[in-house]
């Protein structure tokens, strides 16, 4: 298949150019070609490679920070060699490093070097829309989600689900379910184990929106509103999402997923959340 292009500047159109390499955007061949292209990416027994399209992360763990830094630096050197071999350009300005650990280091951590540039240790990073802080409290991610939630609410609240909206309550609830909870609970399978004080902030936001939708007076309890609208609390909703997510992974026959280890150290539980509240039986309606 021959691909061509033209450039238009004001009313002037250039001659036809020919694209001799690459694939059309959104082509079904792109994932296959990318998998083949990155098949020989640097592998290390002490490093876990995480790929999602062109977003790549490497993870290392150890009992000391020196071991982790030394392992990561060795992995970065191997990545440099692979990128140089296949002429892959890396934007070092977007490359970040973070150390997940308890407590605070007594001394400053040694910087990592990548393509002759030092990588400073950040307190948090954003990967695939999830903000990971060094203590894994997920406080900043929940704040980011709530801010994004309110930005979306301002667009639809006045005319669609607000107090003066002409829509019936059933339609308001339907719009609420389809648009707003997915924003609040994005990747909640990961941050759902945050402390209750952080999770409570998410529930407070949902309470406010439901009160606006129903125009409820102050003396109506929030749990009564949830029950009348047949809506779950955010905590219960996160539990259901997490349970389904990890159960689907363990039941999936995909050979790539079978290579992943979702058991804990004693290899008894089928996935990492098996000892938490997320594995409790679903409550009857």
List the helices and strands and how they pair.
Elements: E1 3-5, E2 8-9, E3 12-13, E4 17-19, H1 29-37, E5 48-52, E6 55-59, H2 65-86, E7 97-98, E8 112-114, E9 117-119, E10 121-122, E11 124-127, E12 130-133, H3 139-161, H4 169-179, H5 181-184, H6 188-191, H7 196-214, H8 222-229, H9 234-251, H10 255-258
Parallel strand pairs: 7-10
Antiparallel strand pairs: 1-4, 2-3, 5-6, 8-9, 11-12
Short description, anyone?
The chain is of the alpha+beta class and 285 residues long. Helix content is 43%, strand content 13%.
Sum up the structure in keywords.
285 residues, alpha+beta, two-stranded antiparallel ribbon, two-stranded antiparallel sheet, 10 helices, 12 strands, globular, RNA-directed DNA polymerase, RNA-directed DNA polymerase activity, RT_dom
General description of the model:
By secondary structure, this protein is an alpha+beta fold. Among the domains are: 40-122; 133-241, no CATH class. It has ten helices and twelve strands. Strands 1-4 form a two-stranded antiparallel ribbon. The radius of gyration is 24 Å and the shape is globular. The chain starts with a strand and ends in a 27-residue tail after the last helix. This is RNA-directed DNA polymerase from mobile element jockey. GO terms for molecular function: RNA-directed DNA polymerase activity. Keywords: Nucleotidyltransferase, RNA-directed DNA polymerase, Transferase.
């Amino acid at each position: 298949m021959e691909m061509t292009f033209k450039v238009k500047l004001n009313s002037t159109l250039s001659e036809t150019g020919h694209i001799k390499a690459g694939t059309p955007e959104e082509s079904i061949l792109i994932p296959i070609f990318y998998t083949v292209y990155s098949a020989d990416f640097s592998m290390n027994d002490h490093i876990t490679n995480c790929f999602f399209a062109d977003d790549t992360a490497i993870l290392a763990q150890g009992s000391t920070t020196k071991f982790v830094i030394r392992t990561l630096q060795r992995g970065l050197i191997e990545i440099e060699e692979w990128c140089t071999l296949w002429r892959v350009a890396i934007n070092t300005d977007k490359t970040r490093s973070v150390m997940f650990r308890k407590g605070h280091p007594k001394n400053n951590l040694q910087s990592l070097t990548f393509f002759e540039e030092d990588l400073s240790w950040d307190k948090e990073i954003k990967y695939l829309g999830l903000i990971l802080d060094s203590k894994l409290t997920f406080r900043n991610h929940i704040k980011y989600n709530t801010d994004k939630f309110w930005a979306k609410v301002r667009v639809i609240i006045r005319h669609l689900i607000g107090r003066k909206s002409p829509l019936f309550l059933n339609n308001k609830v339907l719009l609420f379910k389809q648009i707003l909870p997915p924003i609040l609970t994005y990747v909640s399978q990961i941050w759902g184990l945050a402390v209750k004080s952080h999770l409570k902030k998410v529930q407070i936001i949902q309470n406010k929106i439901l009160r606006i939708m129903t125009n409820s007076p102050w003396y109506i309890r929030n749990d009564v509103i949830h029950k009348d609208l047949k809506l779950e609390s955010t905590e219960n909703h996160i539990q259901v999402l997490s349970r389904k997510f990890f159960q689907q992974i363990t039941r999936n026959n995909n050979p790539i997923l079978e290579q992943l280890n979702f058991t804990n150290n004693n290899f008894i539980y089928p996935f990492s959340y098996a000892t938490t509240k997320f594995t409790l039986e679903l409550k009857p309606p």
